[in-house]
Records
---
Amino acid sequence: MNQTHIDFFTNLLGKDNAYFDKAHKIAYCYDATKKRYEPDGVLFPRDENDVSKILKYCNENGVIVIPRGAGSGFTGGALAANGGVVLAFEKHMNKILEIDLQNLVAVVQPGCINMDLQNAVEKLGLFYPPDPASQNYSTIGGNVSENAGGMRAAKYGITKDYVMALRAVLANGDIIKAGKRTIKDVAGYNIAGILIASEGTLGVITEITLKLIAKPKFKKTAMGVFKSVDDAMNAVYKTMSAGVTPVAMEFLDNLSIKAVEEKYHKGLPVDAGAILIADVDGNLELSLEQDLEIIQKVFKENGALDFVIAKDEEESANLWFARRNCSQAITCYGSLKLNEDITVPRSKLPKLLDKIKEISAKFGVTTPCFGHTGDGNVHTNVMVDKENEDEVKRGYEAIEEIFKATVELGGTLSGEHGIGLSKAPYMHLAFSDEEMALFANIKKAFDPNNILNPFKMGLK
Amino acid sequence: MNQTHIDFFTNLLGKDNAYFDKAHKIAYCYDATKKRYEPDGVLFPRDENDVSKILKYCNENGVIVIPRGAGSGFTGGALAANGGVVLAFEKHMNKILEIDLQNLVAVVQPGCINMDLQNAVEKLGLFYPPDPASQNYSTIGGNVSENAGGMRAAKYGITKDYVMALRAVLANGDIIKAGKRTIKDVAGYNIAGILIASEGTLGVITEITLKLIAKPKFKKTAMGVFKSVDDAMNAVYKTMSAGVTPVAMEFLDNLSIKAVEEKYHKGLPVDAGAILIADVDGNLELSLEQDLEIIQKVFKENGALDFVIAKDEEESANLWFARRNCSQAITCYGSLKLNEDITVPRSKLPKLLDKIKEISAKFGVTTPCFGHTGDGNVHTNVMVDKENEDEVKRGYEAIEEIFKATVELGGTLSGEHGIGLSKAPYMHLAFSDEEMALFANIKKAFDPNNILNPFKMGLK
């Protein structure tokens, strides 16, 4: 970063919004991966015009730009792996601009925190369903850029299902709008659709218009205990095809159950092969009861040893405790967690879990699994000792085979974490040369000088 | 079309699948616009490999390719306005390939007729919601290419909300897959998302994987009669913000009501300013009753003169009769119908309808309106005498002002018909030069030689 660049950014934004000191470089070098890359500077744009001027300058001068949310990503999407300036939105561009009660729409800036939006709309009787595990700190801009999912995806879908319109700045500084505050809009190419999940490689999102829905009045939680993973996985997809769509249908395998029990002593069934935790919701208690009856029937038909319905919110929180705490608890199995968010069609879950077991045995690694089975998304955690070089190597070999198995079963490398840096080496397992060439052409159409978060997602 | 091209296509596909005679050119020269353009040939690919070989050849030899569904489009998307070969899928690539009961997914070829799919899945207790008015003959390939909507969009969304994955052939003949049979998939750019609604300009879709849902067990219909359009439009968006999401909330204005009554004598309230017809559905009769109670309350609060709930399917069909037949009936107002599918945020409907009335008076034209107000989509029909040159001219001037008003209200030129040829002259009203330049860059990234349905959507 030469002095001319530093002067430009400082003049444009003021000293309080453009930082090139070591402390800021360290503060913005991380995300939820173990990787660290210091950027050359950290910029806090005050508005869309700042973003436009920054991008125009960077495009003309070959400065790399890394748009960044909360830095909570699991795949390095926000890391400045090739230097450049980080654009951070948490200081100025972090507001809820509007909640439109007439059209059930919210308009937010990219730095708005997911939970702040959820809280604001729920006070008004409305509901913004996407709830990534990072919801307390991750930003809507980051959620859109990675197309974040969450627990409630089984019924309510993911971030992309709620984005109605975007404003964005292109690499050359052009400000564009995409989409409308309408359910239907078929004029022009679906630019919003391709900006979502593009991990900051195609444009910088500056405003997001989101669909809201009415908040369901009632919610209930149930838990099923299964002898085997296989039984549980069969119960998942059979519940859905029986016509019930639970809000969430979450899963813990035996390793995850044991880890939670060991740490928290909650009286979990440590001999069970798996547990499933399901939430149902709606505006009529009767419809919830009907749903729970069907779930119980399907669970029993698929070998459930036990089935519990929470009587109140406290009991519900208790049932959810195991799921919410297993990510932490399973660190007992290894000091390095290689966690992947592979996703398969729900009916392939039994085969996928078999395959993971087989591959883990082959490479001598321990792989607790849990996650969002209601939408086919399994958090697969290969746990290794980070000091044991050979085990780490075997861990990565296992991961590669798990990816291969996932793709063979019609699944995807990533259900919700994105590709970023971490999964870039595996893109060839899922995409043909022709498909990768198309991605490269699209990247070039948006960003011919390759300044926007370059070399992510396996792009060259 | 020179003899070399004709020989290539004939050798590749056989004489039965490659036609260059006048009869075929005439048979494939039309769509639902009044425009006619004869293609240079009509090809019936037998499979994806045929499509790939055709496109590779056309790309290398500068032959234009027009993918075509049923030719039921309203904006000329399937017209060979610049010559070239039409790719028609109704002969071979028209099948339902799979209905996957475990994952609630259907896989179809592009030439599959929408209603054939609906019927097939409903027999199995499942439901494919997108129901464009052309559903009896339009194809899923066409529906995806135009991102078709329909009556049920207010609750169930539109075609894009059901497309999970596509296979497609790019201009250079490359065969690609995009998306997965999973709810979550965030690996790579959202290619399926940009192919949807791209009107055959970016690739030729060869296989479509669609999400299905469980068929709701109950449905009920209600009708509200309003003194004024304004009252009715207020009732629409207030119903939604009261937490009810009707399957459909359809609207007829006074001109439409009178036209239907004059033709069919059904006892409709010819003095009413507007009627609203609403369907609600669900798996519990109690929930439908609750929804109808709220709708009735909102309608009454907004000046409804009358509110009727259909007792059975026959009464429901009666209430729907007016809506289903108004497109035909309003031809009494003029021999040429300039019909547009503008869409605004629901809360802007009262203002939009006011504006349409004002503009119609200014230009001395009659403009009956009806349509899918539940999602903000109004079918606006400027009716003129096609022999009266001056009136036709005034009609088009009115259309342009209506488009301007729509965009000013935050709406879109097209809710479901697409841009094609007909709306291309108006793209500048809705999109900036920067946005049009981005569209052109994307087109070039997919189709550098501009062979795929060129010069549609306002592209140069």
---
Amino acid sequence: MSTPFHKVAIIGLGLLGGSIGLAIGEYLPGVATTGYDRNRATRRRAAERGLVQTVADSAEEAVAGADLVILCVPPGAMGEAAMDCAPGLSAEAIISDVGSSKVAVAKALAEALPNHTVIPAHPVAGTENSGPDAGFASLFQGRWCIITPAQDEDAAKVARLSALWEGIGARVEIMDPAHHDRVLAVTSHLPHLIAYTIVGTARDLEEVTESEVIKYSAGGFRDFTRIAASDPTMWRDVFLSNRTAVLEMLQRFTEDLTELQKAIRKGDGETLFDHFTRTRAIRRSIVEMGQDTAQANFGRD
Amino acid sequence: MSTPFHKVAIIGLGLLGGSIGLAIGEYLPGVATTGYDRNRATRRRAAERGLVQTVADSAEEAVAGADLVILCVPPGAMGEAAMDCAPGLSAEAIISDVGSSKVAVAKALAEALPNHTVIPAHPVAGTENSGPDAGFASLFQGRWCIITPAQDEDAAKVARLSALWEGIGARVEIMDPAHHDRVLAVTSHLPHLIAYTIVGTARDLEEVTESEVIKYSAGGFRDFTRIAASDPTMWRDVFLSNRTAVLEMLQRFTEDLTELQKAIRKGDGETLFDHFTRTRAIRRSIVEMGQDTAQANFGRD
């Protein structure tokens, strides 16, 4: 297959943007890449690491001649980033993004670029690190990228975007944006919210010191600290832009937690045992589907 | 230093018991080991893997001649396991355990063995796996073992138990049992409860399928599934035996979660951003203290 695009412009050169640039360089070497980040130090570091072939001095300049533009900024900054690109965009360029919420981002992009083709997307991949040093070429290998085109979108354009993601190692799924937001609310947003919460709870206790929390974190707590170390700006924007679905999933979680709390209070061991037995199966399925390692403790020890 | 004990008997040959046996074999080869598990298949597998030098046919037989007995059974089974050992125990044997809650276990052991020296302990180490195939010799390397002796305990005996744990790679801390139970409620028990809850919530949704939950788990959810795959019997017992501290920590967590929920509902980005920024530091400290890997995604991808 020929390359799906000639030139890809990446706006925002952090973990996701940098990884896309490196992945294209590695797996789709026929595709040219340019990039821009509004942070000057990030641009400099991006050039040093060669995240893209050309680091431009403005968004407008970066997107000139590109047939695909991928916005890799926090959800709340998408509209503004799109407007910064507008003056330089080719009429036939496809605009996409990597935002973790899709209804709000699609709306912001459509409003910012009413005369362009916007096809939102979300690669479900990442690490707890951020910034221009965080990206790596293999980040998307075996991970899913969810594309959420408008219902009347040109199928050929969606296929080109799919081909790019598959070209850098991802598996592609097409989904309705509202459904995406509910799925990710439970598989990503709620877990982050809970992890951020418990890490804060542990830190603020008076009777247990922070040093004790750190020393004895191998009992389970350390697992939560990884995602609670994720980029604060991005996660603020995720919760604000996917508010309804997150609050709904949180409501379900709270109901379930209350049920287990009641079982503990009443000394109802049977309810606890039944619940804990049923949750084991999901882990096995995730490992079998290649979405996590089979090694104990994630293989980290 | 000479070996702190001549013969260690391990009752319960699952993840913890098996790992202690293998670790003694590896790092303290001068110490003899015997073991017993009430499950016949586990005894057979323990013998095949050589988890201990001699697998006995009863607890009584296993502890004969041992100067240290370590009970490695779920918290709720400690009292009964201790009573099974009683007829075979030497008068000078020290009885210890690895239970995740200490006030209730200490009480159960003292009641079962009123005429013996009981020094409870809890190595803060483990994996999501259980059973006789789960153990490995290096499990305790660099991890903490908390020993919770009675206030009037003979210091020389506590020192011998400490030496054993240090001999197999652990770092030792002496702690009041009630304080242990509060510390572990936040660093281990609450994280497990929350992980078990959210995995159940995700599984029970109607509008998001289990297959979607699994496919898109790399967005954060998969981190929670690891500890939610832990042994159900043990965790039922942990929550029942450390009920008060767990419910108290859960109350704090719920208050903090409600605060973040309110911030999301009100669109209060500043509160979210501030909270998410402060939680980053704890992760860094855990990595610096050698309690987790510095690699992104725990190094698993």
---
Amino acid sequence: MSLLRKTLQSSLSSLKQVRHVLAAPKKLSLDEFDGPSIKTDIPGPRSKELLRELNSLSTTHEVQFFCNYEESKGNYLVDVDGNVFLDIFMQISSLPLGYNHPALLKVLNDPANLSTLVNRPALGNLPPADFPLRVQNSLIAVAPKGLTNVKTMACGSCSNENAYKAIFMWYMTKQRGGAPPSPEELETCMYNKSPGAPDLTLMSFTGAFHGRTLGCLATTHSKAIHKLDIPSLDWPIAPFPQLKYPLEEHEAENRAEERRCLDQVHALFREYTSAGRPVCGVVVEPVQAEGGDNHASPEFFRELRAITKEYGAAFLVDEVQTGVGVTGSWWAHDLWQLDDPPDIVTFAKKMLGGGYFHTEEFRANSGYRIFNTWLGEPSKLAMCEAVVKTVQEENLLENVRQAGSVLLDGLKHLQTKYPTQLENARGLGTFIAIDCKGGDAHRNKILTDLKRKGIQSGGCGERTIRCRPALIFQPHHAEMVVNAMDEVLAEQA
Amino acid sequence: MSLLRKTLQSSLSSLKQVRHVLAAPKKLSLDEFDGPSIKTDIPGPRSKELLRELNSLSTTHEVQFFCNYEESKGNYLVDVDGNVFLDIFMQISSLPLGYNHPALLKVLNDPANLSTLVNRPALGNLPPADFPLRVQNSLIAVAPKGLTNVKTMACGSCSNENAYKAIFMWYMTKQRGGAPPSPEELETCMYNKSPGAPDLTLMSFTGAFHGRTLGCLATTHSKAIHKLDIPSLDWPIAPFPQLKYPLEEHEAENRAEERRCLDQVHALFREYTSAGRPVCGVVVEPVQAEGGDNHASPEFFRELRAITKEYGAAFLVDEVQTGVGVTGSWWAHDLWQLDDPPDIVTFAKKMLGGGYFHTEEFRANSGYRIFNTWLGEPSKLAMCEAVVKTVQEENLLENVRQAGSVLLDGLKHLQTKYPTQLENARGLGTFIAIDCKGGDAHRNKILTDLKRKGIQSGGCGERTIRCRPALIFQPHHAEMVVNAMDEVLAEQA
């Protein structure tokens, strides 16, 4: 039996064990609509009016329509024209429990939480009394195995930016072997010059998305429009495996492709190091999301982790989009069964605030090195705590696995039924995608037609449709999505 | 009469005119404490206990003590040991109306605002129905003259990062003269290479602070500890004027110093441009805050603005700390009376969320170039709207000018009384600072002793004490600060 298959089977059996331990999920009782209902063009007349208003104050290229968040419920998003969408994109994958979940409403209706909203503290200097307990009950309660520390941040980009800084500081602290920085380092850094601002690098992958601020953007390689015209850094970029789906039918080719990429990782470590530009870390997504839902095997990630150890570099797993249960595990990298945990794991989106988990080794060695005014926001932790509790109490990971299985089976059925239109249905949990054979235009047409049928979904990569529903998305919702897509595809055929 | 003096007088007379138009401020009726009250060591026993708890989960180098935000009121911060501080630092200058202001409590008690908190939208894609009106009533209502557009962001660093990107995009769009990007540009940018990721630069000043993410950090030059070990970009860094205070007594020297710095700005534009590394913009704070409360004259800024025009570069004013009324004007750069407004003005902190104002010219020319998942948060706009309304209704700018005048006069008196300890009292509105002659250690001792007397203040630069009270800080609070400082200085003498 191949290593890849062994790995997959071992991941599966570990999932089965989890299933075994957990009770079957309760059928969720959600206060929501029976199904989508579309009354106007999308965007409707009221949305168009608001679009004109907003456009006089701000660019609006990306606005799809305007929403009525008060009326939205569970898996259903309501727009200002009264249209009701089954939402499988959930605000770019950032709402864990759908709309107006009672557990979250309860947090914000609690007068005790009001003062943290009105008096947003400088969390690093003057935390509120309940901050340690909140961190414990929200973030640390779901900390990745082996990562005992956390820093809170406001968004995904800030999380990655600060994680990169933590890696560079860790690397230089090791280099100094306990010695303090030299006067020359302290002087030169003020002018952006070496040795104080050293010529260190961080490795990323083609197709990656880690954010849009300048440090993050140097490691983002998903779409030209994100990067065009912005000065960048010469940091190593390794090829991310381009696997064939279904993975189990292309085992040998996929293994060879992953081998090719890992060889390049080795080569880039050697090339940059010998050029005096040390590679201090590697950043990677468990599934490349914005880049087109590109998967790699647990084996690939295990070997990547081993390579970082070999070269004394940090291993940073960016779980901003893959985290919080969407793959059927809390963190996607749980499925890799690493012997050594990652050094740093970043999060945002469905955690409702950002930050990064890290090992003891990656604690900043003095004050104000990893810092900003707000460092996130305590009210986000209060909401995150409610999310963690709800996922546990309602057994939502099992729900994700069941709904995901129905959705993926349905998409696989559709790609067999419409072989000229669809291919490569793939996914973990409800983190599911499928490719459109007619490229960009074909994909966008399907997304628009789905919207007209009341399914709010999203694209990624060049020709991919991605599903990013909330954790309360259930098998019967998955069936609605598949049926709507069936109709759309039949109309195109 | 010198130009500098003319300028100052003209600024003053414009202020006077404003005063004339506005009614004298009502004496604010605030529900707050009569004065500070300190019962324990700082940090007290409960704070120490919580510090130990938090330190097992996260670094805590910067924690001063833990707070009871429910009990804090107006200008007074209450800690977990029951100590009451008169707070003139206000969460690193980020609370506009002090603690638990009724106008903000009202916003968050309004059930209509609950859904924007629970259902945080991807604002760029799916804004709520009231978003255009909210933007109008909060941000646009106080937009700097000439800047009709705004983009919302989550924090100060993201605001500057995206403003920098907007400048680079604007510059390259001009260069192309309407032509689309070349295939070579679209390909090379994916690998961080020129011409797609061009070698453009942005000028900043010694002593500046614009944030800590990698792009911002390349323009931050206030303290080595912020920059040490982080790779950076070779961008031009001009000297910021080191003026002598009081400004009116050192006119000729200060004018010469500003001339020297402006000559260097010219030289750097020429040097970088001739090296094929165009300087696309200049970023500057109206008063360098973190760098030590360094002032420059309106004349200096007017000439800087003219220089950017001359070289076809953008002029970005970072008002993250100086904005929102603290100088006695809504924006500090209002006092410069520019003929041409800045191209971009960034904000955060007291605006309660981040973003940047800009002219029509700086609108992104296509979708997803300036974008992220959340793009700020609508609930912050609802609060900002209440701040704008409260400042207007309660005439808080005039209050700031009056309280600031009492505080600055008091500090000037103290520096005369303690000439071996203090010098350089300076400020605009309540944005006030004073230097400690004994350097870092002396400054930190005074800050600690002030805390023991119930005054919560902050430091900046190497030896400066900075005052950053809320807009509801009144003359009688200023007197308390001066009296407490008098006692502290007398004990040191």
